[in-house]
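Suppose you are handed a protein chain with no further information: no name, no annotation, nothing but its sequence. What can you learn? This example shows the usual starting point.
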Amino acid sequence: MQMKSYLSLIPISAKVHRRQNRMTLLCIVFAVFLVTAVFSMADMGVRMEQMRLTERHGSLTFQYVMDSAMGQSLFLAAAALFVLILIAGVLMISGSINSNVAQRTKFFGMMRCIGMSRAQIIRFVRLEALNWCRTAVPAGVALGIVTTWILCAVLRFLVGEEFSQIPLFGISLIGIISGIVMGVAAVLIAARAPAKRASKVAPVTAASGNQENPGGGERGMNSRMVRIPRENKGGFQIETALGIHHAVSAKKNLVLMTGSFALSIILFLSFSVLIDFVDCLMPQSAAASDIDIASSDGMNTIESGLLGTIRGMDGVKQVYGRRNMADVPADRGTLDLVSYDEFDLDCLKKDGALKWGSDITKVYGDSRYVLATWDPESTWKIGDRIRTGGEELEIAGLLKNDPFSSDGLTGGKMTLITSGETFTRLTGVKDYSLLMIQINTDAQEEDIQAIRSAVGENYVFHDRRDQSTTGTYTAFVFCVYGFLVIITLVTVLNIINSVSMSVSARIRQYGAMRAVGMEEWQIRKMIAAEAFTYAVLGCAAGCAAGLLLSKALYDTLITAHFKYAVWSLPVGEMVIILAVVGFAAAAAAYAPAKRMREISVTETINEL
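A reasonable first move is to predict its three-dimensional structure. Written in C-alpha cells, the prediction is:
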C-alpha cells in the first residue's frame, strides 16, 4: 500500500502540535525580523547618504553611493550579521524540529507501517517545516518593517542632526527579500537532519513509541531504578549522572543544543563590539563643552577671574579651565604639561578614560602625582617617576589614549596631566589657556549673548552646540542594545523550549523511572543536570569562539582605524550573558519538572 494523500496531514499536524510548534515559529519570526530590520536600516542609511550627497554634488547613482565608505560599511556589516543570524536560526530551529520529531516517533512509525516511504517521510518533514513559514515569515517581515519605521522616526524627530533626511515609512525591498530568504533558507537547512532521522525510523521500533537510546540504554537504566543508590562510581548522585547521560548520549542533539547556546553567546559578544566601535567613532565625554573660550595666541593669557565671573551667570551649568605648557625640560627629554580642574578630573573617571590600575585620587589638589597620556607604543607605566622643574613626579595613572592629538596617539611625546594647584606650583602660572562652559538645557539665546559680551574681544569665542553628537551616539547605542536585548530574549526562550522538548521526548522513560521507585525530587534533579550540562558546554564553546570572533571584529572595525584602541577581555559582557544562560537553564529545568509532578505515573508511561 502506498500513501497518496499524506501531504494533507501537514495542516492537521500543525493544528494538533500547535503548542509544541510555538517556539519554532517564534525562532523563525525573530530570525526574519532581525535580518529584515538590519538590512532595511542599512538601506535607509544608504538612501539618506544618497540624498545628502545629491544636495552637495547633484545627481548621483546608487553605485556611487555604494562605492562610498559608508555604503560599503553598512552592507558589509549587514551581510556579516546575516550570516551569524542564519547560523543561529538554523541551530535553534533545527533543535526544535529535532525534538519535535523525537516526540512523534510513533506517528512516523505508523506512517511507515501503512505504506509511507522514506522519501515521503523526508518530504513530509520538510514541507511541514515550510508550512510554518506561511505565517512566521510574513510576521517577521512585518515586524521588521514596523521596527524600521519606528527607528527612522526616532532618528529623524528625536535625534535630528544628520538624520534629518532619513526616509520615513520607507519600504526596503532589500530588507524584505533578505528576511524571506533568511526564513526559508534557515527552515530548509534546519529541517534536513531531522527529516533524515525521521526517515530512518524502523516501523516496528517506532510503533513501540520509543526510539530514545536505541542501544539498550533505557532498558539498562530502568533495571537499575529498582533501588536508587545515592551515588554512583563516578562520584555523582545517580540522578545527576543520568541527567548528564541524557544530555551527552544523543550526539546530534547535544551538538544542536550546545551549538545553539554557543551561537547566542557568540552573537551577544559580537554585537557588543559595535558599542566600542560607536564609542571610538563618536567619543562622548562628560567634560564635553558647549562653549569654548580660547586665548588668541594659545598661551595662558585668559585671566583666572573670568572663570568666576562666568560661573555666576544665568544659563551656565559648569565652567572649568585648562592651562598648558609645551616642551618642558625633564629627565626623559621634554614633555607637555596640561592642568585639569577638579571637574575635569572627575569626568575622566566617569568616562572610563583611565587604564586599569590607575589611581586618580592621588592627583587631586597640590600633590606630586600626575596622569600621563598613553598608546600601545608608549614605554612609560604607572609608578614611573619623572623629574621636572626641580621636583620628582610620579605617574599615578594612564589615559587609554592621547586626547590632545588628532589620532589618539602620543607619537612618543609624553604629556602629563596635573591638577590646577600642582600646575601652578610647578610653573607659577595661574591664568588659563582655555575655558570650557556647559550650559543648562533651558538656557536662552540671551544667556549665550551675555556670556559672549563678558568674554569681550580679547579672546576667541567658540559656540560648539551644533557640533554635539550626543543624540546620534544615543541612537546608535539604543539600536545596538535593542538587538542585544532581542538576542538575549531569544536565548532564554530557546533554552527553555529546547530543554522542555527534550524532556517531553523522554516522558515515557521518566514514567518508567517513577514506576520503579524514583522520587519526584530525583526527577527534578535529573532534568536540572541535563539542562545545566547543555548550558556549561554551550558556555564553554560560545565563550571560546565568541572571544576569538570578538577580537577579530575589534581588530577589523576598530584597531584598523583607531590605532590607539586595544582589545581587552569583555568581562562585563561575559558576566551578563553567562548569567542569562544560567537563569535560562534554571527556568528550563523548572517548567518540565513542574509538569512531571502534575502527571501521574500511568499517564507518563502511556504518553506518546
